[in-house]
Specification:
The protein has helices at about 20-35, 55-65, 80-90, and strands spanning about 5-10, 40, 70, 95. The protein starts with 6 loop residues before the first strand and ends in a 5-residue tail after the last strand. A four-stranded parallel β-sheet has the order 2-1-3-4, with helices on both faces. The longest helix has 17 residues, at about 20-35. It is of the alpha/beta class.
Length: about 100
Amino acid sequence: MNPSEKYVYICGSISGKETIAAKEFESAKNKIIAYGMIPVNPFELDHEGSTEWADFMRTDIQALVNCDYIYFANDITNSKGGQLEAHIADQLGIKECVICL
């Protein structure tokens, strides 16, 4: 990661709605790019062929902690992973990307 560029982690509910979420995350990615920042899209991370939720989260959280901002692509109210990512971002001082809204 280049320190002069701003990285934005895309967070959202995925489990059980993968097709819709993929479209939401792609839309978020395009918004982030339009604002001149670098999107970090969990759908594009290398999960090394895993199918386990915990393994996905390990990879995603590693990506999140290196980002400058977090952007919510959809409602995370009922998303265990989204809630976890939001909590970690909050505790680490990773702010929500409000210009991307």
